Amino acid sequence: MPHAAPSGTPRPPPSTSPSRPIPAVSRATPVLTPTGVAGLPQADPPRIAPVTAPPRPAPSPSAAAAELRELQARLERMRKESAFQILGVPEHADSAVVKAAYFKLAKQFHPDTIAPGSNPDLARVKAEIFAAIGEANRILSDPEARARYKQTLAEGGPADVDVQALLQAEETFNKGVVLVRARRFAEAVKAFDAAITANSKEGEFYAWRGYARYFTNNDKKVAAADALRDLNQALKLNERCAQAHYFIGQVQKLTGDSAGALKHFKKCVQIDATHVDAQREIRLLSGK
């Protein structure tokens, strides 16, 4: 939750729009302010809201065992399927069809749908399925990534995804987001480093690392250069990464470049029309 900010302190506001799904973070982390860093924002930095469904009541033991067997069988099939098969869409499906298929499956298999006290194996298998669905969506929602993927399939390359590595990357990234919210930026950078090592193709990992990096150096010119290096890499991997544009806008706003900040906030809204925090920044910078 946002914290009250002292007067005159820059506030990078929280983002409520998802640019891509991540597992929900349920445990609050104490807010610790790093020492020696001037002008830190006193509000929680932007966050990514997960796509969740309400937890179900715990099923009977027999029903739970049957569900586990069904999910294990599904996971085994998915390991041999293409991204198109995982989402259940044809190769000619447009972005709207891909998005609709993804959200339907994400709501069904999100780890938050596991009832409290369920078999740990059930939670693990469902989390792996959710990670595979997320990776399939990442590939098919990015035109360049989809084109490369289709070329790989045409050449007889592997269609499977390393679910375990992707799941580990998502979990590590999620820890980094929690650390950013707690303003423990140096620790967050290390978490994002590990996430990128596990999955170097996810642009949003670089976006969050760049944003965290800005607050780890007292020399704001150096800090801004480090941050923008990662943020630009995020856009290189995914030019439609709305969160990267939002973070660039925040860094430029904090360094006094209001015109540059406004440009990227507008680009963020062009990509994600529901990004209310970018919309607010546009109103503030435009004087409207």
Write a structural description.
The protein is 60% helix and 0% strand. With 288 residues, it is mainly α. α3 packs antiparallel against α4. The protein is globular, with a radius of gyration of 20 Å. It starts with 60 loop residues before the first helix and ends with a helix. The N terminus is likely disordered.
Can you lay out the helices and strands and say which pair or pack?
Layout: H1 61-78, H2 83-87, H3 95-109, H4 120-141, H5 143-154, H6 163-181, H7 185-198, H8 203-214, H9 220-237, H10 242-254, H11 258-271, H12 276-286
In summary, what is this structure?
The protein has 288 residues and is an all-alpha fold. It has 12 helices and no strands.
Features:
single chain; 288 residues; mainly alpha; globular; disordered N terminus
Proportion of residues in β-strands? under 5%
How would you sum up the major sheet? none
Task: Determine the number of helices (DSSP H or I, runs of at least 4 residues).
Answer: 12
Radius of gyration (Å): 20 Å
CA-CA gap between termini: 27 Å
The global form is globular
**Counted beta strands:** 0
